[in-house]
Design a protein that fits this description.
By secondary structure, this protein is mainly α. Helices cover about 75% and strands about 0% of the residues. Helix 1 packs across helix 2, helix 1 crosses helix 3 and helix 2 packs across helix 3.
Length: about 140
């Protein structure tokens, strides 16, 4: 199951790279905020139909959840707008590598401190070296322009 999960997140990462490549030109045509709205609207419609056919039959009321559970709904559009604006300016590879560097840095903190009710996974030297290698990749990609 661990290898399947890893494969799925790699495929999802490829999807994000594709999304960045699509959003830049779309944002240039319709505007960055409208492009983001189009992407989220399409995704919302898809998830609505998936939820109808495959979702839980007794969903939990969102009013009973802690507010931070829903904060991703605020972060997602910010992320997509930034990706839409940045990709045409700095390129898809640099955009995605920068996003990856930020994701890994914050993820290490979340794992280390066990934020958001996650299991604690202490940061060790291997993880720090991995982050440094990603930062090095970003520097190499940025220097290639």
């Amino acid at each position: 199951m661990k290898w399947l999960s890893l494969l799925l997140v790699i495929v999802a990462g490829m999807g994000l790279g594709t999304e960045a490549g699509i959003l830049g030109p779309l944002g240039g045509v319709v505007g960055h905020y409208w492009a983001t709205l189009c992407i989220f609207g399409t995704g919302t419609a898809l998830l609505f139909f998936i939820s109808i056919f495959f979702g839980r039959r007794r969903p939990v009321s969102i009013m009973t959840l802690p507010g931070w559970h829903l904060s991703g709904g605020l972060l997602g559009p910010c992320y997509v707008v930034i990706m839409t604006v940045a990709a045409p300016v700095i390129g898809v590879a640099m955009t995605m590598t920068g996003i990856l560097a930020g994701q890994i840095a914050k993820s290490l903190l979340i794992d280390h401190f066990g934020w958001f009710d996650t299991r604690r996974r202490p940061v060790n030297m291997r993880r720090v070296i991995a982050l440094c290698l990603i930062a090095g990749a970003l520097a190499l990609i940025a220097g290639g322009k």
